[in-house]
Amino acid sequence: MTSGPLPWRVELRHVTKTFYRGRQALTVLGPLDLRVSDREFVGLVGPSGCGKSTLLNVIAGIEQPTSGEVWLDGEPAPERLGRVAYMHQRDLLLPWRTVLDNAILPLELRGIPRREAAARARPWLERFGLAEFTRAYPAQLSGGMRQRVAFLRTLLADRPLILLDEPFGALDALTRASLQEWLLTLWEELDRTVILVTHDVEEALFLSDRVLVLSPRPGRIVREIMVDLPRPRPYEIVTDPRFVRLKAEILAELRARSTLEVPLDGT
d(Cα 41, Cα 238) in Å, to the nearest integer? Predict the structure, then answer.
């Protein structure tokens, strides 16, 4: 058996998604083709309502495509639930569980005994700056700390593909910038594949290898922009002329599409 490069970590082949309510049909995605390679960080931007979150739900297996196929690791993957780690904008921490108990939830769901799960999580709690808060409850944490717990829970799911849906969207600018740097450092160390949905063009550029621009509904990939900026990236790179040029290019694309594509009400 010969070895070769790893196939695409995730591949969408002519995927569409239509929701039905009675006799009414609303197509929110597609047709859409997407390929993301191993250890790549891809950002998705687009106008509100263009199907970005639906796209992540389809990849994760929460939704099934109306047509087309989703492939994982070079094979068709009709059943995908549990194969992908997924972090939503809301931290979704369980208020009755401590920081430690929230973090180890995916391990417990896989049948790992609590003692073993806690032992696996504790070194990470230290790295995430949460070691002093293992017995704290979500209501006792700041927004940034809650997001760190949520990301740790996502990481402990131990999946090679991580989906992030506006993970820092509800945070203030300073906390958001700090967590973006923190996420980038972790990604560079852990070699995971990440797909990030965000409304923040600057965030997408700072974190990503590629930024994909989606059209208004039904969402389709209408532009791919390679982020040819060196890594590691200090946050100060947002003032670099190359960064500013790429940001202006993406914003111009979004403005143009908002007037030329199908309106958000579908008319």
Answer: 18
pTM: 0.89
Q: Give 39-70 pLDDT, tens digit per residue.
A: 999 999 998 889 999 999 999 999 999 999 99
Give the range among 35-44, 122-131, 233-242 with minimum mean pLDDT: 122-131
Residue indicated by tokens 């070895």: 3
Residues 57 and 122 in one domain: no
Average pLDDT over residues 171-176: 80
Domain of residue 130, residue span: 93-158
> Within 10 Å of residue 23's Cβ, how many Cβ atoms?
5
Same-domain pairing of 129 and 188: no
* CB-based contact 55:208 (threshold 8 Å): no
E-only strand ranges, the chain = 10-21, 24-36, 41-45, 67-72, 75-76, 85-87, 161-165, 193-197, 210-214, 221-226
Cβ atoms within 10 Å of 200's Cβ, excluding its own: 18
DSSP 8-state code for residue 7: -
Looking at the structure of the chain, the number of domains it has is 2
Same domain, 49 and 133: no
